[in-house]
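URGENT: need a sanity check before tomorrow's submission.

F., can you look over the Outer membrane receptor proteins, mostly Fe transport record below? I want to be sure the sequence and structure line up before it goes out.
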Amino acid sequence: MKYIIKVFLFLLIFSISYSDVRGKLTGKVTDQNKNPIIGANVLLVGTNLGAATDFEGRYIILNIPPGIYDVRISSIGYKTKIVQGVKISAGQTTFLDETLEETVIELGQEIVVTAEKPIVDIRQTSSVAILDKNEISVLPVQELADIINLQTGVVDGHFRGGRLGEVQFQLDGVSINNPFTNMTNLKIDRSLIEEVQIVSGTFDAEYGQAMSGVVNVILRSGKEDKFEWNAEVYGGDYYSPDRKKYYPYIDKFNPASIQNFQLNLSGPTFIPATVFLINLRKYYNEGYLYGERRFLPTDTSNLEKKIFRPTGDGKLVPLSYTDEWSGHFKITNKSLRNIQISYQAVWDKIKGKTYNHAFRLNPEGVKTQKTTSFIHGFELTHTVNPNFFYIFNLRQNYFKYTDYVYEDVFDPRYLQAGRPVSDPNYEYGAVIQGVDLSRFLQETNSYIAKLSITDQILKNHLIKAGFEFQIAKIKFGPPGVIVESNVEGKQVLLPKIEGPEVPGVRTYHPRWLSAYIQDKVEFPWLLLRAGVRFEFFDANAKIPSDLQNPANSITGAPESKLIPTKKKIAIAPRVGVSFPIASETAVYFSYGHFYQLPALNYLFSNSDYSVLKDLQAGGISYGVMGNPDLKPEFTTQYEFGFKTQFNRNFGVDMSLYYKDIRQLLGVEFVSTYTAAEYARFTNVDFGNVAGFVIAIDYKTGAFSFSLDYTYQIAMGNSSDPRETAIRAEAGEDPRPRLIPLNWDQRHTLNTFIIFQKPNNWSLTGIIKFGSGQPYTPTIGTTFGANLETNSARKKSYVLADIRAEKNLKILGTNVNAFIRIFNLLGTRFVNGFVFTDTGSPDYSLTPAKDAATLIDPSRYYQPRRIEIGLNFNGSFLVKK
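Structure tokens as predicted:
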């Protein structure tokens, strides 16, 4: 503990900071003879942010919220210049060098120019994609997840070959990950986004609890001088004319199958120096997978005599729908000098179902999933002087997920319906009575505190450091179960909440502490980002002291007691360098150590070792035991790249990367004193990823073109932590080996084509190509029929999405009419299910055995989706 305190105090002395949510503007102001202008005023129009140039004509403006600004540059004896459209990004430095013309008239003369965004940012030290709200608005995307999957090196949510759950998601610089899964439950609509940064390469020391990437979303805020409103409504449907073979029931277009209603309001309030933003959204998607309500859960057929008694109404019922309400509220006050205080709340409530082909004739027996996300908190920003500011954050992240048919375990409908019942000779084994009896609840309530200071201590050194403390209450498990019990000699189903055979809902209270310090050194000939991060984690749980006697139930064996888990500490250095070798060309290199604790469900699920009291050699399996004493997983990343801008319209970015992954979550087998074995999660797996990326950008006038290609090799011991245990149970060799991971997509190509006339019309197309991911082929159905793991490849795919928009003016209101078509080509297969004996989703060598699967439409990729809508927006200035 003394060591932890020493490290913490060392970092605190330097200063304390946060994940970047503010940008920086710097540059040099000169006259027409290239001499520096001293004392020139540089001001961001519409804000109180500005600076004066020094003796070298240089200026620095910190703490700028992301956005597009007009910059006003003025000095006595020179014509004032206004540079429009200067983009400021969170955590990035924007350079703006300008020349002023001399004049004998001090007032009334202004020169207005438009800033040009460089097509390639040569000041980056790793692969970073930054998209603002204007760039997002023309893409055929709706939510954050859609934006992420378009980025270089991202394959189905896997960043550069990593497992799912290795990405840190942040909202305005604070984590929104649910530590139970290491992923986020929150869906963020594009209408809320001011800017999104997606880091798929190495990342700075300010980011933690991630091994593969970072997604930082900056939400919009209101403006003091302008009231703005925006409303959007659209409808749509999935459509495929091939009803019989692939997608039943969607050969007719129903625009009400997808519905979206959304309203944004923002602007000043009646309180001085206070602005607000409020958003409300209702979204419904019926999906494209349906069931027929032929049977009800309480039907009673006579399977012995093959007498079936359906009592349903025969209507089609959506079995993969999403029904969502979401909202966002933010209020910001600047009435105190140099102090900004804001409160923000984001919430999301989703109800839906996951398609279960077995229940296609008894849809009322399928479980319903409900997700609630509520994230809110306060932020205080104090600008002490132009070069020094601090931020204090308090945040609560609340997530709740439930998965059951009926909320109350004592609901009489459970017992009336009973277990699912099917007959293999009736509709290929479809369930014709009963309900899914499994039940699950997961609830996370986290509290996060962050304190930050950013200091431009020297002209070329921006020092950041920081710490974050988080505590969480995590609950999960079945909220009551339906068990088979013997009552008066009869086997009956009974609801139970507690008991020896009922695990129940468990509660844990883990805690985290992290800190870092980082220096950003900026010279015209060098950009250096160097830092170190400190991580501390306490599972705050207990484990057996002797794993060979896990339940302390072996007679004569050494006593095993429950002891506290060890505190976990990790220190991760990171460095990135960019060398400009010409005015618009640079080479860069980055290196770092990245630690991440496995998702807490692997630590705490099935972690009660007392269940092993009856474990005997050759006895029953208790599944893979959880391990509250897991260590953080570890990755070393390297990246080397080259960027150049050939001219104002054409640029290229190339990079090579390598990841060495250690202490990855896997399974070990522990032998007891009685020679019995049980499986347990531990840090034994490994892997490595190597790749090459080339990105080409071309922009001129109304036309923009982007192309990025990734070649990647992702190898590892296993794709899933449980894979080793599954192989052992199947009688296969469980020893470590290096094989292609399930998401090892060797070739990925993304192409963006945009035609647009601003404020008039736009047409955008996205084409994605991906080579086939691996699968394990078989040569039969008997033991040993599986060939080498992941030794075959699925077929490649091409996906195309388009968006067309036309701007109109109706009764003084701006109206944008748009149409979006996803999967324009009607691609049916995108690295999904295949029959292992053919490598195809369409046919099997044993059609009789696979008859039910051959009529399951969920094995195909989602069909063509068409959405048509209107966006209304307007604004008016407010007099102060």
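My own read: The domain at 2-114 is CATH 2.60.40.1120 (Immunoglobulin-like). The longest helix spans residues 2-14. If you see anything odd, call me.
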